[in-house]
Amino acid sequence: MAIVHDDQSFTTERLHVNTACYEQVISQQPSLLPRIVELLRPAVVEALPPYFQDINSNDDALQWLNTVCAESQLFTVELKEQALPIGFLFVHKQSEGLVHIGYLLGEAYWQQGFASELLSGFIAWAKQHTPYRCLVAGLDENNQASKRLLLKLGFSLKASSEANTQIYHYNIRP
């Protein structure tokens, strides 16, 4: 369950999730760039779009950050006790009330319940602080861990679209 801070961030038991934008990172958090390089390793991004691939330098990270922030609301996911980014949450408005969400966690943080905690917290936050009606998540059909998580949280499989991609929906409001 999320402990809501404001309309731009939330916390869970172990995580602090905060919006980040390109300008803010450049001026206030330049140390995030090498962390992006660390987190976006091949195993983490293998099923993600091409602009997530081959992030090997701070310049690559800066270009990735610019691209992501231009198309989505970006949230950093940090461990509360360390203020250490362990991943990202992406929210892209598709239409009024319909948003596409995505997330990634560094490989060292897999299978520890962080993804479940992050998405549960986001859903609780979205219910209180947004007009979102439906969350849409697309994932590679081979990503069994994310598939199980989405179903556990109440998402339902709606369609398969492009090759190897499954689309899941979570209705926040009727």
UniProtKB/TrEMBL annotation:
- Give the Pfam families listed for this entry: Acetyltransf_3
Write down the Gene3D superfamilies for this protein, in alphabetical order: 3.40.630.30
Q: Which residues form the signal peptide?
A: none
Please report the stretch or stretches of sequence annotated as the N-acetyltransferase domain.
23-174
Matching entries from SUPFAM superfamilies are given as: Acyl-CoA N-acyltransferases (Nat)
The molecule here is called GNAT family N-acetyltransferase
Q: Which organism is it from?
A: Agarivorans aestuarii
